[in-house]
Amino acid sequence: TAKDADTQGATAAQRWLEQDRRYVWHHMQPYAASRDPMIVVHGEGATITDIHGNRYIDAMSGLWCVNLGYSERELAEAAYRQLAEMPYYPLTQSHLPAIRLAEKLNAWLGGEYKIFFSNSGSEANETAFKLARQYHAQRGEPGRWKVISRYRAYHGNSGAALAATGQAQRKYKYEPLAPGFVHVPPPYCYRCPFGQAYGSCHLECASVYEQVMEWEGPETIAAVIMEPVITGGGVIVPPPEYMRQVREICDRYGVLLIVDEVICGFGRSGERFGHHNFGVEPDIVTMAKGITSGYLPLSATAVRASLFEAFKDDAPYAHFRHVNTFGGNPAACALAVRTLEIMEERRLVERARELGRALSAALVPLAAHPNVGDVRSFGFLAGIELVADKETRSPAPAAFVNQVLAGCKRRGVIIGKNGDTVPNHNNVLTISPPFVVSREELDQIVQAVTEAVHEAAEGAGPSGAS
Ligand code: PMP
Protein backbone atom coordinates (compact mmCIF):
# COMPACT_ATOMS: atom_id res chain seq x y z
CA THR A 1 0.00 0.00 0.00
CA ALA A 2 1.01 3.60 -0.33
CA LYS A 3 1.25 3.83 3.44
CA ASP A 4 3.67 0.91 3.55
CA ALA A 5 5.76 2.39 0.77
CA ASP A 6 5.98 5.54 2.79
CA THR A 7 7.70 3.73 5.66
CA GLN A 8 10.10 1.79 3.45
CA GLY A 9 13.46 2.62 2.04
CA ALA A 10 16.41 4.36 3.57
CA THR A 11 15.38 7.79 2.27
CA ALA A 12 11.92 7.55 3.77
CA ALA A 13 13.36 6.34 7.08
CA GLN A 14 15.78 9.25 7.14
CA ARG A 15 12.95 11.69 6.52
CA TRP A 16 10.87 10.24 9.37
CA LEU A 17 13.88 10.47 11.66
CA GLU A 18 14.44 14.11 10.76
CA GLN A 19 10.80 14.93 11.44
CA ASP A 20 10.95 13.01 14.69
CA ARG A 21 14.02 14.91 15.81
CA ARG A 22 12.30 18.14 15.00
CA TYR A 23 8.87 17.57 16.51
CA VAL A 24 8.61 14.66 18.93
CA TRP A 25 9.64 15.02 22.55
CA HIS A 26 10.62 11.58 23.80
CA HIS A 27 9.73 10.39 27.28
CA MET A 28 12.60 10.19 29.78
CA GLN A 29 15.41 10.12 27.20
CA PRO A 30 18.56 12.20 27.61
CA TYR A 31 19.17 14.39 24.58
CA ALA A 32 21.71 12.22 22.76
CA ALA A 33 19.59 9.07 23.08
CA SER A 34 16.49 10.97 22.02
CA ARG A 35 18.19 11.76 18.69
CA ASP A 36 18.31 8.12 17.73
CA PRO A 37 14.96 6.54 18.55
CA MET A 38 13.77 3.19 17.33
CA ILE A 39 10.83 4.09 15.09
CA VAL A 40 8.52 1.12 15.49
CA VAL A 41 6.16 0.40 12.61
CA HIS A 42 4.85 -3.10 13.22
CA GLY A 43 4.23 -5.64 15.94
CA GLU A 44 3.67 -9.38 15.81
CA GLY A 45 3.36 -11.61 18.87
CA ALA A 46 6.22 -10.71 21.20
CA THR A 47 8.16 -8.94 18.47
CA ILE A 48 8.35 -5.43 17.06
CA THR A 49 9.76 -4.27 13.73
CA ASP A 50 11.42 -0.91 13.24
CA ILE A 51 11.32 1.37 10.23
CA HIS A 52 14.45 -0.26 8.76
CA GLY A 53 12.84 -3.70 8.88
CA ASN A 54 14.84 -4.87 11.91
CA ARG A 55 12.86 -7.23 14.10
CA TYR A 56 13.31 -7.51 17.85
CA ILE A 57 11.86 -9.61 20.63
CA ASP A 58 10.43 -7.08 23.04
CA ALA A 59 11.42 -8.55 26.40
CA MET A 60 9.96 -5.50 28.18
CA SER A 61 6.42 -5.65 26.74
CA GLY A 62 6.78 -1.97 25.85
CA LEU A 63 6.64 -0.36 29.29
CA TRP A 64 5.70 -3.58 31.10
CA CYS A 65 2.25 -3.63 29.57
CA VAL A 66 1.77 -5.43 26.25
CA ASN A 67 1.08 -8.74 27.97
CA LEU A 68 -0.94 -10.21 25.10
CA GLY A 69 1.67 -9.27 22.52
CA TYR A 70 1.45 -6.91 19.58
CA SER A 71 -0.97 -8.61 17.21
CA GLU A 72 -4.13 -9.56 19.09
CA ARG A 73 -6.76 -8.59 16.54
CA GLU A 74 -9.64 -9.47 18.86
CA LEU A 75 -8.65 -6.53 21.04
CA ALA A 76 -8.69 -4.14 18.09
CA GLU A 77 -12.06 -5.51 17.05
CA ALA A 78 -13.54 -5.17 20.54
CA ALA A 79 -12.53 -1.51 20.60
CA TYR A 80 -13.76 -0.90 17.06
CA ARG A 81 -17.17 -2.44 17.76
CA GLN A 82 -17.60 -0.24 20.81
CA LEU A 83 -16.43 2.89 18.98
CA ALA A 84 -19.01 2.23 16.28
CA GLU A 85 -21.79 1.53 18.81
CA MET A 86 -21.27 4.26 21.41
CA PRO A 87 -17.89 5.97 21.44
CA TYR A 88 -18.16 8.19 24.46
CA TYR A 89 -20.16 9.04 27.48
CA PRO A 90 -18.80 10.31 30.80
CA LEU A 91 -18.94 8.17 33.91
CA THR A 92 -20.88 10.83 35.76
CA GLN A 93 -23.57 8.51 34.32
CA SER A 94 -22.77 4.98 33.12
CA HIS A 95 -22.29 2.69 30.14
CA LEU A 96 -22.27 -1.05 29.54
CA PRO A 97 -18.52 -1.60 29.00
CA ALA A 98 -17.75 0.09 32.34
CA ILE A 99 -20.32 -2.07 34.13
CA ARG A 100 -19.01 -5.25 32.50
CA LEU A 101 -15.42 -4.37 33.31
CA ALA A 102 -16.14 -3.38 36.91
CA GLU A 103 -17.89 -6.71 37.43
CA LYS A 104 -14.99 -8.59 35.85
CA LEU A 105 -12.42 -6.75 37.96
CA ASN A 106 -14.34 -7.79 41.06
CA ALA A 107 -14.10 -11.42 39.97
CA TRP A 108 -10.37 -11.03 39.30
CA LEU A 109 -9.75 -9.28 42.62
CA GLY A 110 -11.77 -11.82 44.58
CA GLY A 111 -13.57 -9.35 46.83
CA GLU A 112 -16.18 -6.65 46.58
CA TYR A 113 -14.86 -3.37 45.24
CA LYS A 114 -16.25 -0.13 43.80
CA ILE A 115 -14.26 0.82 40.74
CA PHE A 116 -13.26 4.35 39.71
CA PHE A 117 -11.88 4.50 36.16
CA SER A 118 -9.13 6.83 34.91
CA ASN A 119 -6.59 6.66 32.06
CA SER A 120 -3.19 6.07 33.56
CA GLY A 121 -1.45 4.55 36.54
CA SER A 122 -0.56 8.01 37.81
CA GLU A 123 -4.18 9.07 37.77
CA ALA A 124 -5.27 5.85 39.47
CA ASN A 125 -2.87 6.64 42.32
CA GLU A 126 -3.88 10.31 42.52
CA THR A 127 -7.47 9.08 42.80
CA ALA A 128 -6.49 6.67 45.57
CA PHE A 129 -4.79 9.41 47.61
CA LYS A 130 -7.79 11.72 47.42
CA LEU A 131 -10.15 8.88 48.27
CA ALA A 132 -8.07 7.84 51.28
CA ARG A 133 -7.97 11.38 52.68
CA GLN A 134 -11.66 11.96 52.17
CA TYR A 135 -12.51 8.58 53.67
CA HIS A 136 -10.81 9.54 56.92
CA ALA A 137 -12.25 13.07 56.86
CA GLN A 138 -15.72 11.66 56.44
CA ARG A 139 -15.23 9.43 59.45
CA GLY A 140 -14.20 12.35 61.62
CA GLU A 141 -10.43 12.18 61.20
CA PRO A 142 -9.60 15.05 58.81
CA GLY A 143 -6.05 15.17 60.23
CA ARG A 144 -5.14 11.95 58.46
CA TRP A 145 -3.57 13.20 55.27
CA LYS A 146 -0.06 11.75 55.02
CA VAL A 147 0.85 8.84 52.81
CA ILE A 148 3.79 6.53 53.47
CA SER A 149 5.59 5.02 50.50
CA ARG A 150 9.02 3.56 49.90
CA TYR A 151 12.31 4.79 48.54
CA ARG A 152 13.01 3.24 45.13
CA ALA A 153 9.31 2.83 44.29
CA TYR A 154 7.70 4.55 41.30
CA HIS A 155 4.06 5.59 41.51
CA GLY A 156 3.63 8.03 38.64
CA ASN A 157 4.57 11.34 37.07
CA SER A 158 1.94 13.71 38.46
CA GLY A 159 2.09 15.96 41.56
CA ALA A 160 1.12 13.54 44.29
CA ALA A 161 2.10 10.33 42.48
CA LEU A 162 5.59 11.71 41.91
CA ALA A 163 5.72 12.86 45.53
CA ALA A 164 4.92 9.28 46.53
CA THR A 165 7.68 8.06 44.23
CA GLY A 166 10.93 7.33 46.03
CA GLN A 167 13.43 7.92 43.22
CA ALA A 168 15.35 11.17 43.42
CA GLN A 169 16.35 11.08 39.77
CA ARG A 170 12.77 11.63 38.69
CA LYS A 171 12.25 14.59 41.01
CA TYR A 172 15.24 16.89 40.54
CA LYS A 173 14.22 20.28 39.17
CA TYR A 174 10.50 19.57 39.61
CA GLU A 175 10.31 20.05 43.34
CA PRO A 176 8.60 21.05 45.52
CA LEU A 177 5.94 18.43 44.85
CA ALA A 178 2.78 17.67 46.83
CA PRO A 179 3.36 17.76 50.60
CA GLY A 180 2.40 14.92 52.92
CA PHE A 181 4.44 12.07 51.49
CA VAL A 182 6.76 10.23 53.83
CA HIS A 183 9.21 7.56 52.69
CA VAL A 184 10.53 4.44 54.36
CA PRO A 185 13.44 2.26 53.18
CA PRO A 186 12.59 -0.61 50.83
CA PRO A 187 12.73 -4.34 51.69
CA TYR A 188 15.92 -4.65 49.68
CA CYS A 189 17.68 -7.75 50.96
CA TYR A 190 20.64 -7.48 48.57
CA ARG A 191 21.48 -4.05 50.00
CA CYS A 192 19.59 -4.17 53.29
CA PRO A 193 19.09 -0.56 54.43
CA PHE A 194 19.16 -1.85 58.02
CA GLY A 195 22.43 -3.74 57.62
CA GLN A 196 20.70 -7.04 58.28
CA ALA A 197 20.56 -10.39 56.49
CA TYR A 198 17.29 -12.17 55.80
CA GLY A 199 16.97 -15.15 58.07
CA SER A 200 18.64 -13.49 61.03
CA CYS A 201 16.82 -10.14 60.80
CA HIS A 202 13.62 -9.03 62.51
CA LEU A 203 12.06 -7.71 59.33
CA GLU A 204 13.08 -4.17 60.24
CA CYS A 205 11.89 -3.16 56.75
CA ALA A 206 8.31 -3.93 57.92
CA SER A 207 8.48 -2.74 61.52
CA VAL A 208 9.91 0.60 60.37
CA TYR A 209 6.36 1.53 59.32
CA GLU A 210 5.25 1.37 62.91
CA GLN A 211 8.15 3.51 64.04
CA VAL A 212 7.54 6.09 61.32
CA MET A 213 3.82 6.22 62.13
CA GLU A 214 4.68 6.90 65.76
CA TRP A 215 7.20 9.58 64.84
CA GLU A 216 4.86 11.28 62.38
CA GLY A 217 1.89 10.99 64.72
CA PRO A 218 -0.44 8.08 63.92
CA GLU A 219 -3.41 10.44 63.77
CA THR A 220 -1.81 12.14 60.72
CA ILE A 221 -1.41 9.03 58.54
CA ALA A 222 -4.04 8.31 55.90
CA ALA A 223 -2.49 5.48 53.92
CA VAL A 224 0.43 3.36 52.95
CA ILE A 225 1.01 2.77 49.23
CA MET A 226 3.12 -0.10 47.98
CA GLU A 227 3.61 -2.31 44.99
CA PRO A 228 3.66 -6.01 45.88
CA VAL A 229 7.16 -6.00 44.43
CA ILE A 230 9.04 -2.79 43.62
CA THR A 231 9.27 -3.13 39.85
CA GLY A 232 10.61 0.03 38.23
CA GLY A 233 12.92 0.64 41.17
CA GLY A 234 14.91 -2.47 40.26
CA VAL A 235 12.69 -5.55 40.83
CA ILE A 236 13.03 -5.51 44.62
CA VAL A 237 11.26 -8.61 45.93
CA PRO A 238 10.31 -8.45 49.62
CA PRO A 239 10.52 -11.32 52.09
CA PRO A 240 7.33 -13.42 51.87
CA GLU A 241 5.92 -12.25 55.22
CA TYR A 242 6.68 -8.54 54.67
CA MET A 243 3.40 -7.44 53.12
CA ARG A 244 1.28 -9.27 55.69
CA GLN A 245 3.21 -7.60 58.48
CA VAL A 246 2.72 -4.13 56.96
CA ARG A 247 -1.01 -4.90 56.57
CA GLU A 248 -1.16 -5.78 60.24
CA ILE A 249 0.55 -2.51 61.25
CA CYS A 250 -1.86 -0.54 59.03
CA ASP A 251 -4.81 -2.26 60.71
CA ARG A 252 -3.48 -1.49 64.16
CA TYR A 253 -3.07 2.21 63.31
CA GLY A 254 -6.28 2.66 61.29
CA VAL A 255 -4.27 3.31 58.13
CA LEU A 256 -5.49 2.28 54.66
CA LEU A 257 -3.33 0.02 52.51
CA ILE A 258 -3.19 1.04 48.85
CA VAL A 259 -1.66 -1.63 46.65
CA ASP A 260 -0.23 -0.36 43.36
CA GLU A 261 -0.78 -3.22 40.91
CA VAL A 262 0.01 -1.12 37.84
CA ILE A 263 2.76 -3.54 36.79
CA CYS A 264 2.20 -6.56 39.05
CA GLY A 265 -1.51 -6.89 38.20
CA PHE A 266 -3.15 -9.00 35.52
CA GLY A 267 -0.89 -12.02 35.64
CA ARG A 268 2.59 -10.51 35.68
CA SER A 269 3.13 -11.83 39.21
CA GLY A 270 2.06 -15.35 38.30
CA GLU A 271 -1.27 -14.75 40.05
CA ARG A 272 -4.11 -12.53 38.94
CA PHE A 273 -2.82 -9.77 41.21
CA GLY A 274 0.52 -9.40 42.92
CA HIS A 275 -0.99 -9.19 46.41
CA HIS A 276 -2.60 -12.61 45.88
CA ASN A 277 0.91 -14.04 46.31
CA PHE A 278 1.10 -12.68 49.84
CA GLY A 279 -2.33 -13.43 51.31
CA VAL A 280 -3.10 -9.77 51.92
CA GLU A 281 -6.37 -7.91 51.42
CA PRO A 282 -5.80 -4.32 50.32
CA ASP A 283 -8.20 -1.46 50.98
CA ILE A 284 -7.55 0.14 47.62
CA VAL A 285 -6.01 -1.42 44.50
CA THR A 286 -4.71 0.69 41.62
CA MET A 287 -4.18 -0.81 38.19
CA ALA A 288 -3.40 0.19 34.59
CA LYS A 289 -0.99 -1.10 31.89
CA GLY A 290 -1.95 -4.78 31.49
CA ILE A 291 -5.65 -4.00 31.96
CA THR A 292 -5.77 -3.30 28.20
CA SER A 293 -2.50 -5.03 27.40
CA GLY A 294 -1.34 -1.48 26.66
CA TYR A 295 -3.57 -1.18 23.57
CA LEU A 296 -5.59 1.78 24.88
CA PRO A 297 -5.18 4.05 27.92
CA LEU A 298 -7.18 2.89 30.92
CA SER A 299 -6.69 2.59 34.65
CA ALA A 300 -8.77 1.76 37.67
CA THR A 301 -8.86 2.47 41.37
CA ALA A 302 -10.68 -0.35 43.15
CA VAL A 303 -11.99 0.56 46.60
CA ARG A 304 -13.21 -2.03 49.09
CA ALA A 305 -17.01 -1.83 49.21
CA SER A 306 -16.88 -1.38 52.99
CA LEU A 307 -14.95 1.88 52.50
CA PHE A 308 -17.63 3.17 50.16
CA GLU A 309 -20.01 3.17 53.13
CA ALA A 310 -18.30 6.39 54.27
CA PHE A 311 -19.36 8.04 51.01
CA LYS A 312 -23.05 7.15 51.26
CA ASP A 313 -24.00 10.54 52.53
CA ASP A 314 -25.69 13.48 50.87
CA ALA A 315 -24.27 16.11 53.20
CA PRO A 316 -22.42 18.90 51.37
CA TYR A 317 -19.01 17.76 50.06
CA ALA A 318 -19.57 14.19 51.27
CA HIS A 319 -19.42 12.61 47.82
CA PHE A 320 -16.19 12.03 45.94
CA ARG A 321 -15.83 15.18 43.84
CA HIS A 322 -13.45 13.78 41.27
CA VAL A 323 -14.08 13.57 37.55
CA ASN A 324 -12.01 12.38 34.63
CA THR A 325 -13.19 13.22 31.10
CA PHE A 326 -11.61 10.24 29.40
CA GLY A 327 -11.57 7.92 32.40
CA GLY A 328 -13.36 4.67 31.62
CA ASN A 329 -13.61 5.40 27.92
CA PRO A 330 -16.12 2.86 26.50
CA ALA A 331 -13.77 1.47 23.84
CA ALA A 332 -10.95 1.09 26.37
CA CYS A 333 -13.31 -0.69 28.79
CA ALA A 334 -14.62 -3.01 26.05
CA LEU A 335 -11.03 -3.79 25.04
CA ALA A 336 -10.12 -4.45 28.68
CA VAL A 337 -13.02 -6.87 29.11
CA ARG A 338 -11.83 -8.77 26.04
CA THR A 339 -8.25 -8.72 27.37
CA LEU A 340 -9.32 -10.38 30.60
CA GLU A 341 -11.56 -12.88 28.78
CA ILE A 342 -8.69 -13.88 26.51
CA MET A 343 -6.43 -14.31 29.53
CA GLU A 344 -9.04 -16.62 31.06
CA GLU A 345 -9.72 -18.56 27.84
CA ARG A 346 -6.05 -19.13 27.10
CA ARG A 347 -5.02 -19.54 30.73
CA LEU A 348 -2.42 -16.82 30.34
CA VAL A 349 -1.96 -16.19 34.07
CA GLU A 350 -0.93 -19.82 34.45
CA ARG A 351 1.26 -19.49 31.37
CA ALA A 352 2.93 -16.38 32.81
CA ARG A 353 3.62 -18.30 36.02
CA GLU A 354 5.18 -21.22 34.11
CA LEU A 355 7.23 -18.97 31.85
CA GLY A 356 8.38 -17.07 34.93
CA ARG A 357 9.67 -20.28 36.49
CA ALA A 358 11.46 -21.16 33.25
CA LEU A 359 13.00 -17.69 33.01
CA SER A 360 14.15 -17.74 36.60
CA ALA A 361 15.73 -21.20 36.15
CA ALA A 362 17.42 -20.18 32.90
CA LEU A 363 19.01 -17.15 34.57
CA VAL A 364 20.70 -19.20 37.31
CA PRO A 365 24.02 -19.68 35.47
CA LEU A 366 24.26 -15.94 34.81
CA ALA A 367 24.21 -15.29 38.57
CA ALA A 368 27.73 -16.74 38.77
CA HIS A 369 29.15 -14.03 36.52
CA PRO A 370 31.48 -11.65 38.41
CA ASN A 371 29.47 -8.63 37.29
CA VAL A 372 26.12 -10.05 38.31
CA GLY A 373 25.46 -9.24 41.94
CA ASP A 374 21.94 -10.52 42.26
CA VAL A 375 19.25 -12.11 40.11
CA ARG A 376 15.71 -11.54 41.36
CA SER A 377 12.46 -12.73 39.96
CA PHE A 378 8.78 -12.56 40.73
CA GLY A 379 6.22 -14.18 38.47
CA PHE A 380 7.17 -13.41 34.88
CA LEU A 381 9.44 -10.55 35.85
CA ALA A 382 13.18 -10.60 36.41
CA GLY A 383 15.84 -8.15 37.53
CA ILE A 384 19.57 -8.66 37.13
CA GLU A 385 21.61 -6.35 39.32
CA LEU A 386 24.95 -5.55 37.71
CA VAL A 387 27.94 -4.75 39.89
CA ALA A 388 31.51 -3.66 39.25
CA ASP A 389 32.69 -5.82 42.12
CA LYS A 390 30.85 -8.75 43.60
CA GLU A 391 32.50 -8.40 47.01
CA THR A 392 31.87 -4.70 47.60
CA ARG A 393 28.63 -4.81 45.56
CA SER A 394 29.52 -1.45 44.05
CA PRO A 395 27.08 -0.83 41.18
CA ALA A 396 28.27 -1.40 37.62
CA PRO A 397 28.90 1.92 35.88
CA ALA A 398 26.32 3.31 33.48
CA ALA A 399 28.56 2.65 30.47
CA PHE A 400 28.70 -1.04 31.34
CA VAL A 401 24.93 -1.29 31.73
CA ASN A 402 24.40 0.53 28.44
CA GLN A 403 26.85 -1.79 26.74
CA VAL A 404 24.80 -4.79 27.88
CA LEU A 405 21.59 -3.21 26.59
CA ALA A 406 23.24 -2.47 23.25
CA GLY A 407 24.61 -6.01 23.10
CA CYS A 408 21.11 -7.40 23.62
CA LYS A 409 19.71 -5.14 20.93
CA ARG A 410 22.40 -6.23 18.48
CA ARG A 411 21.21 -9.77 19.19
CA GLY A 412 17.62 -8.83 18.45
CA VAL A 413 16.37 -8.52 22.02
CA ILE A 414 15.08 -5.41 23.81
CA ILE A 415 15.45 -5.45 27.58
CA GLY A 416 15.15 -2.64 30.13
CA LYS A 417 17.23 -1.03 32.86
CA ASN A 418 15.92 0.29 36.13
CA GLY A 419 17.06 1.00 39.62
CA ASP A 420 18.25 4.47 40.60
CA THR A 421 21.38 3.60 42.54
CA VAL A 422 22.60 7.15 42.21
CA PRO A 423 20.79 9.87 40.24
CA ASN A 424 20.39 8.96 36.60
CA HIS A 425 22.02 5.62 36.99
CA ASN A 426 20.15 2.34 36.66
CA ASN A 427 22.13 -0.82 37.26
CA VAL A 428 19.36 -3.41 37.22
CA LEU A 429 18.52 -5.08 33.91
CA THR A 430 14.82 -5.82 33.66
CA ILE A 431 13.00 -8.53 31.74
CA SER A 432 9.21 -8.58 31.52
CA PRO A 433 8.17 -10.28 28.26
CA PRO A 434 4.68 -10.62 26.80
CA PHE A 435 2.85 -13.72 28.02
CA VAL A 436 2.57 -14.91 24.41
CA VAL A 437 6.35 -15.18 24.01
CA SER A 438 7.37 -18.63 22.75
CA ARG A 439 9.78 -20.89 24.63
CA GLU A 440 12.27 -20.43 21.78
CA GLU A 441 12.00 -16.66 22.09
CA LEU A 442 12.47 -16.91 25.84
CA ASP A 443 15.65 -18.93 25.24
CA GLN A 444 16.81 -16.24 22.81
CA ILE A 445 16.22 -13.56 25.44
CA VAL A 446 18.28 -15.41 28.06
CA GLN A 447 21.01 -16.18 25.55
CA ALA A 448 21.21 -12.57 24.39
CA VAL A 449 21.45 -11.22 27.95
CA THR A 450 24.04 -13.83 28.92
CA GLU A 451 26.21 -13.15 25.87
CA ALA A 452 25.84 -9.40 26.24
CA VAL A 453 26.97 -9.47 29.89
CA HIS A 454 30.01 -11.60 29.00
CA GLU A 455 30.80 -9.38 26.04
CA ALA A 456 30.61 -6.18 28.10
CA ALA A 457 32.84 -7.72 30.78
CA GLU A 458 35.40 -8.90 28.26
CA GLY A 459 35.36 -5.61 26.36
CA ALA A 460 35.74 -2.28 28.09
CA GLY A 461 34.32 -3.89 31.22
CA PRO A 462 33.18 -2.14 34.36
CA SER A 463 36.68 -1.20 35.49
CA GLY A 464 37.66 0.12 32.08
CA ALA A 465 34.38 1.85 31.41
CA SER A 466 33.68 5.31 32.71
N1 PMP B 1 2.72 2.79 39.31
C1 PMP B 1 3.63 1.93 38.87
C2 PMP B 1 4.07 0.81 39.75
C3 PMP B 1 4.18 2.08 37.59
O1 PMP B 1 5.10 1.22 37.14
C4 PMP B 1 3.74 3.15 36.77
C5 PMP B 1 4.27 3.36 35.37
N2 PMP B 1 5.45 2.76 35.03
C6 PMP B 1 2.80 4.02 37.30
C7 PMP B 1 2.30 3.81 38.56
C8 PMP B 1 2.32 5.18 36.51
O2 PMP B 1 1.58 4.77 35.41
P1 PMP B 1 1.36 5.72 34.14
O3 PMP B 1 2.66 5.83 33.45
O4 PMP B 1 0.32 4.97 33.37
O5 PMP B 1 0.84 7.01 34.67
UniProtKB/TrEMBL annotation:
It comes from the Bacteria. Keywords: Aminotransferase, Pyridoxal phosphate, Transferase. GO terms for molecular function: pyridoxal phosphate binding; transaminase activity. It holds the Pfam family Aminotran_3. The keyword Cell membrane does not apply. InterPro entries: Aminotrans_3 (IPR005814), Aminotrans_3_PPA_site (IPR049704), PyrdxlP-dep_Trfase (IPR015424), PyrdxlP-dep_Trfase_major (IPR015421), PyrdxlP-dep_Trfase_small (IPR015422). PROSITE patterns: AA_TRANSFER_CLASS_3. SUPFAM superfamilies: PLP-dependent transferases. Belongs to the class-III pyridoxal-phosphate-dependent aminotransferase family. This is Aminotransferase YhxA. It comes from Alicyclobacillus cellulosilyticus. The lineage of its organism: Bacteria, Bacillati, Bacillota, Bacilli, Bacillales.
